[in-house]
Amino acid sequence: MSDTPVIAVEGLSKVYDGGFQALKEVDLAIRRGEIFALLGPNGAGKTTLISVICGLVNASAGHVSVDGYDNVRHFREARSRIGLVPQELTSEAFSTVWDTVSFSRGLFGKPRDPVHIEKVLKSLSLWDKRRNRLITLSGGMKRRVLIAKALAHEPEILFLDEPTAGVDVELRRDMWEVVRGLRDNGVTIILTTHYIEEAEEMADRIGVIRAGELVLVEEKHELMRKLGRKELTLHLREPLTTVPERLAHHDLRLADDGHALVYTYDGRHNGDDDQAGIADLLADLEEAGIHFKDLHTRQSSLEEIFVSLVREKA
């Protein structure tokens, strides 16, 4: 990936008529060729941020550049590099898939290119449906048509606003494969999603937005390493009624009616510190005469991290 961001957002704010501030001094750099997931509760500002970047909503302050072009002064150049997939298909119900996608290409002043349209439709498993009218398609197929329309003019950047909302799990995973394929072909992907598993499965980096503020941007794996709580559960041979006083300096709690001890630690420590802490705990347990028959570890999911971040900023 290039070090120069393909999208640069600086000091972006948006205040609507009536005084509601939807965005508050947002700074964000999107790397070329990455999948970036924007997470946030309803009303957090996700769609507003996308709309401002795409030039559909005017910012109150700050500016945006797309592949080096200011999205206000050089709107046409900036917008031509962007494909936007909205949440719903709202028109053209009686048009065919082929005509709808071809028309979208023409809107951007691109010459007819049946070979490209064919390639897009085949990549989205829409080729067999190319003569079907949109009104006859399933919800999942309509969602694919939205993506095809956004790709018709060969954009370098693709925005997906809740791309799999309301579709079943199997189709959702199919869509993930489509998005990964686009990324592998050099398209930069920015998606908003309510599905934490979607970000955890696909994203290279994750941004968390709340009440119009971008509260965190981090590599997915680094985010989970730094903020992910880890637990070591020790299944005891003999149950305990309380945690012994001599073990009080460890972060321990009883579980399973005293048949398990749960040791909590976090990824802010490096691996050596974690191992040392566990070794000290096991030594102290041995000294206290507490024996266990099994153990296992788990790490917080991205969903748990996200919930904790939103609460923390509330």
TrEMBL record:
Residues 7-236 form the ABC transporter domain. The keyword Zinc does not apply. PROSITE patterns: ABC_TRANSPORTER_1, ABC_TRANSPORTER_2. SUPFAM superfamilies: P-loop containing nucleoside triphosphate hydrolases. It holds the Pfam family ABC_tran. Keywords: ATP-binding, Nucleotide-binding, Transport. This is ABC-2 type transport system ATP-binding protein. It comes from the Bacteria.
